[in-house]
């Protein structure tokens, strides 16, 4: 991914800059990474290959801004974030185009999911924190009488590190609670998708957010992300990304006693019971497996179906998946765009081969798609694999692309064991028309979220996160309030 000066379409790639103390700065080492447009393969952006020197400058700016920002009234912090949200709404089309060109997803997905949700994140935390920042109180009424209350105080400079699948959506999910609770931050977006984070910095300036409150260093994980995690002036790290990276970050942050929030990988199952509304289950599982090219941590990658309805399910499901159109992200008819990178496309396709090697059958898809006019783009057909057992690698490992495995089960206990039989515990969905069965099965599933007869219905006031190797901690409100503040008890003897 080393930057060169030429592009495949002859136009000069746009060069991004870090955002430090309210100004756009070139990387200290003067080096850049080439970022291709996944739908064409063309070299579209040069992003700073930041190093520890850039991180030091960004952390220093955030540290200098902290004393004033942490004492800025909540109403003012809220006003500024809502101003950024307004600007994002006004620029929604430009952001959706940029997100799609950078990530490969259809513009219609960016325009209906990523950008509106980024705006909602800003509004949600800007208003939630206005109304519920206080901690609880208590009175001792024994021989010693005292009144105690909890103060919630901002922690300092936060490292906010995000992945490439929902770039602005996931970054604003961290920025908004971080800033509303009075912290300042240094963000490190994914090196694969830096563009909308860069554009967001312009909006923060336009909104009048003081310099240093939010800083952005671009670049890869080792040279930019890791120095940020290691920095002695960064007491809290909020990370969303892969489980292996999360373990590495934890190994650095834990001995330094940093506050750590980890949102990691998943291997989410859908359980289709015999009494499910099959048509609704089929329609939703098409979406849950292939939305955003299957590149959402919550996507369904294992579908476990009661044997009595398995044949009907697979027939309807395959027919529906075959209707999905893979095509240029700019085409409103495209259901799936390109995968984020060539390297990721190869990884996804390698799992199709692994599935075949392990005795699985590819019912549909399983190959790269050559889109006319976009021959160098990273497109993969939506893929259904059947015939795999619970221990198969495609049933165990996160593929994070448009591949889902469908298998029958004989009784519900078997389905639960299968569902729980991975190192992950992010999300699951459950399909049944029996409300009592739904509650009983939901209670047995090891996951941060269980959706019943739906998928990815998000209530931002609910705690979001994973169990087991899917993460540590929860995001949302009030979970993010707890993460981004320290509790202090003040006890007054009466
Ligand atoms: P990744 O772990 O490779 O990278 C995530 C971020 O971490 C990037 O910004 C990267 O540059 C940075 N990074 C990498 N190594 C680092 C290091 N040593 N120190 C500090 N930072 C480092 O993940 P990815 O490939 O960008 O994203 C895909 C993964 O993210 C999948 O596993 C997916 O399940 C997960 N994800 C989880 C959630 C969730 O909410 N649980 C949401 C979206 C994605």
Describe this structure in words.
- 40% of the residues lie in helices and 24% in strands.
- With 494 residues, the chain is α/β, with parallel strands linked by helices.
- The protein has 2 domains: 271 residues, Aldehyde Dehydrogenase, Chain A, domain 1; 184 residues, Aldehyde Dehydrogenase, Chain A, domain 2 (3-Layer(aba) Sandwich).
- The strands form 7 sheets. The protein has a 7-stranded mixed β-sheet, sandwiched between helices.
- Helix 5 links the parallel strand 8 and strand 9.
- Helix 3 crosses helix 4 and helix 4 packs parallel to helix 5.
- 52% of the residues are buried.
- Bound molecules: nicotinamide-adenine-dinucleotide.
- Nicotinamide-adenine-dinucleotide binds next to helix 7 and helix 8.
- The site of nicotinamide-adenine-dinucleotide has 32 residues, from helix 7 and helix 8.
List the helices and strands and how they pair.
Elements: E1 14-15, E2 18-20, E3 23-25, E4 32-36, E5 43-48, H1 52-71, H2 74-90, H3 92-103, H4 107-131, E6 137-141, E7 145-154, E8 157-161, H5 167-180, E9 184-188, H6 195-207, E10 214-216, H7 221-230, E11 236-240, H8 243-253, E12 259-263, E13 268-272, H9 278-290, E14 300-306, H10 307-322, H11 342-357, E15 361-364, E16 368-371, E17 374-380, E18 383-386, H12 393-396, E19 403-409, H13 412-420, E20 424-425, E21 427-431, H14 435-444, E22 449-452, E23 467-468, E24 471-472, H15 479-484, E25 485-493
Parallel strand pairs: 1-5, 8-9, 8-11, 9-10, 11-12, 13-14, 13-21, 14-19, 18-19, 21-22
Antiparallel strand pairs: 2-3, 4-5, 6-7, 7-25, 12-24, 15-18, 16-17, 20-23
Helix pairs in contact: 1-7, 2-4, 2-6, 3-4, 4-5, 9-10
The structure holds nicotinamide-adenine-dinucleotide.
Nicotinamide-adenine-dinucleotide binds at residues 161-165, 170, 188-191, 220-222, 225-226, 229, 240-242, 245, 248-249, 263-266, 297, 398, 400, 426, 466, 471.
């Amino acid at each position: 991914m080393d930057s060169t000066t030429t592009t495949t379409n002859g136009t000069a790639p746009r060069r991004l800059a870090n955002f430090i103390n309210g100004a756009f700065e070139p990387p200290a080492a003067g080096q850049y990474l080439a970022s291709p447009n996944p739908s064409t393969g063309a070299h579209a952006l040069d992003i700073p290959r930041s190093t520890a020197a850039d991180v030091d400058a960004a952390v220093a700016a955030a540290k200098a801004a902290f004393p004033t920002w942490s004492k800025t009234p909540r109403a003012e912090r809220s006003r500024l974030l809502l101003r950024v949200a307004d600007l994002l709404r006004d620029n929604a089309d430009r952001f959706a185009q940029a997100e799609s060109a950078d990530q490969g997803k259809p513009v219609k997905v960016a325009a209906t999911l990523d950008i509106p949700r980024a705006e909602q994140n800003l509004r949600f935390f800007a208003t939630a924190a206005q109304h519920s920042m206080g901690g609880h109180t208590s009175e001792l009424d024994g021989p010693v009488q005292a009144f105690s209350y909890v103060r919630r105080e901002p922690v300092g400079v936060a490292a906010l590190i995000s992945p490439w699948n929902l770039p602005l959506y996931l970054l604003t999910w961290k920025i908004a609670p971080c800033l509303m609770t009075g912290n300042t931050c240094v963000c490190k977006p994914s090196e694969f998708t830096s563009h909308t984070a860069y554009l967001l910095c312009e909006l923060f300036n336009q909104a009048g957010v003081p310099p240093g409150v939010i800083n952005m260093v671009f670049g890869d994980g080792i040279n930019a992300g890791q120095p940020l995690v290691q920095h002695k002036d960064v007491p809290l790290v909020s990370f969303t990304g892969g489980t292996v990276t999360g373990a590495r970050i934890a190994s650095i942050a834990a001995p330094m006693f940093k506050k750590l929030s980890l949102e990691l990988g998943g291997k989410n199952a859908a359980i289709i019971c015999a009494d499910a509304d099959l048509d609704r289950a089929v329609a939703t599982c098409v979406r849950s497996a292939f939305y955003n090219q299957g590149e959402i941590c919550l996507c369904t990658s294992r579908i476990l179906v009661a044997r009595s309805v398995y044949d009907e399910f697979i027939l309807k499901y395959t027919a529906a998946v075959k209707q999905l159109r893979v095509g240029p992200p700019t085409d409103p008819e495209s259901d799936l765009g390109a995968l984020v990178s060539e390297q990721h496309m190869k990884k996804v396709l390698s799992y199709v081969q692994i599935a075949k090697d392990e005795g699985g059958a590819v019912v549909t898809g399983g190959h790269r798609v050559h889109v006319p006019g976009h021959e160098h783009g990273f497109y993969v057909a939506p893929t259904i694999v059947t015939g795999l057992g619970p221990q198969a690698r495609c049933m165990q490992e996160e593929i994070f692309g448009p591949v889902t495995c469908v298998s029958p089960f004989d009784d519900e206990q078997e389905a639960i064991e299968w569902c729980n039989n991975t190192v992950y515990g992010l999300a699951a969905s459950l399909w049944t028309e029996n409300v009592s069965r739904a509650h009983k099965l939901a209670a047995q599933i090891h996951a941060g979220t269980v959706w019943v007869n739906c998928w990815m219905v998000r209530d931002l006031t609910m705690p979001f996160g994973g169990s087991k190797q899917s993460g540590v901690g929860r995001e949302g409100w009030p979970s993010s309030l707890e993460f981004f503040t320290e509790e202090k008890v003040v006890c007054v003897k009466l």
